[in-house]
Amino acid sequence: MNHPGTAVGEQVAFGPLTITFDERVLRPRPWTVGQSEWAAELLTDAPAGPVLELCSGAGQIGLLAVHDGDRRLVCVDANPVACAYTLQNAAAAGLADRVEVRNGDLATMVPTDERYALVVADPPWVPAADTGRFPEDPLLAIDGGVDGLVVAIACVEVSAAHLLPGASLLLQLGNVEQVDALAGSVAARCGLTLDSTRVFERGVVARFVRA
After folding, report:
1. H-run or E-run covering 34
2. 3-state SS of 171-211?
3. Distance from C-alpha of 44 to C-alpha of 28, rounded to nearest angstrom
């Protein structure tokens, strides 16, 4: 994706990184630093290969995950504004040469022959009927459909098709009930099993591995 130019936006600290975004992109949540830190932990023993970030927003979770290593990062998001900010944030973090950004639908942005050592995903997970409770958030970034799992299911399906042996998916969701629903349905169908879950201040992150 070509860089469309540098946007001004608002800046927030995300771990040691400074992330730029505006009201068209989901504000980085401080607690999601925990997802990045877990990803970095897993990368120390993960197979050789790049990292894939789905529903990447401004890119902060993936960028922080690979910041202290040498892994390449591929970020995918449906929002072109978010993708532009990811490019800008990658450059600001000194990671421009290791980050590729793709704007489009999850199902079409990852070629069938690509394999990844780790997938991180922060899909919209708010049930559609509840999105009005968060008027400050862009609808595209939070609307997860009727049960909040529509995009999360797509993330699981894409991840299952592109994980290397020994690789993991770290998926952010709203609560443990959503994790259990995915683990017992689409994840099992795709050959993934729930390994562990970490509960944070405003949500949960689940690790899925090959069954």
Report:
1. helix 33-43
2. EEECCHHHHHHHHCCHHHHCCEEEEEEEECCCCEEEEEEEC
3. 25
Decide if 77 contacts 57 (C-beta within 8 A).
yes
Structure tokens, 72:
């390449």
Helices assigned H by DSSP within 72-117: 80-92, 106-109
This prediction has a pTM of 0.93
Q: Provide the greatest CA pair distance for the chain.
A: 45
Helix (H) or strand (E) holding 170: strand 163-173
Distance CA 121, CA 110 (A): 14
CA–CA separation, 25 and 57 (whole Å): 6
Model confidence at 5: pLDDT above 80: no
Rounded to 5 degrees, what are φ and ψ at 202? -125, 10
pLDDT, one tens digit per residue, over 163-185 is 999 999 999 999 999 999 999 99
